[in-house]
Write a structure and sequence with these properties.
It is built from three helices and eleven strands. By secondary structure, the chain is an alpha+beta fold. A four-stranded antiparallel beta sheet has the order 4-10-1-11. A three-stranded antiparallel beta sheet has the order 6-5-9, with no helix packed on it. A two-stranded antiparallel ribbon has the order 2-3. The model has no long low-confidence stretch (mean pLDDT 91).
Length: 195
């Protein structure tokens, strides 16, 4: 079993604008009936969230009438410097933002390639603490902050603002596009995962 989630991460929001953007998105989601205004105990990893609203089905591809019976069925808004991840499993590769060289993070059997993974572990932890630690590419030798590398399978996203939908059916692509538009056209990453 487990809990499924989808997180829309604004990877361009600055720390200064994240709170305002979060409030604007939440106002829209409540006004259009995608989530309820009342904060309740309906999310994992946070005190409270927003349960699905009367029109939540318009945001997803295949509405599930049983979602209302699932305890963790709400929207969790995260504001603050965060390394968002897809939960279970591992990323398969990471790509250099300079030369586009792809570094596998797993072999044919799936375990992590420790040498490659070690390049990123410390930098990711430091990024979450507020530092932009660069990582060197073994192919071109250039360095880039860890948050600029491209993670296969959208396994990681680095940002100051994220919206996690717990146990919702697959979000409609149009809804995700509208979300990004309402974030000022910022680039977003959609993480899908399971705990």
């Amino acid at each position: 079993m487990g809990d499924w989630f989808q997180t829309i991460v604004d990877i361009e929001a600055t720390p200064e604008e994240a709170q305002v953007l979060a409030a604007n998105i939440l106002d829209w989601l409540i006004a259009d009936g995608f989530v309820s205004a009342e904060r309740t105990d309906c999310v994992l990893g946070a005190d409270t969230g927003h349960a699905p609203g009367t029109r939540y089905g318009e945001a997803v591809e295949d509405p599930d009438p049983e979602l209302v019976n699932v305890w963790s069925n709400g929207l969790q808004v995260t504001v603050g410097r965060t390394v968002f991840d897809a939960g279970q499993g591992e990323p398969s590769a990471v790509t250099c933002p300079h030369c586009a060289a792809e570094m596998p993070l797993g072999d044919e059997h799936g375990p992590l390639v420790e040498e490659t993974w070690a390049r990123f572990m410390d930098a990711m932890e430091l990024w979450g603490e507020g530092h932009d630690e660069p990582v060197a590419c073994p192919s071109c030798g250039r360095t880039a902050p860890v948050h600029t590398w491209l993670w296969a399978d959208n396994y990681f996203a680095f940002g100051h603002l994220g919206f996690t939908f717990w146990n919702w059916p697959t979000l409609r692509p149009e809804f995700v596009v509208d979300f990004a538009r309402r974030l000022g056209g910022h680039r977003t990453v959609l993480l899908e995962g399971k705990l």
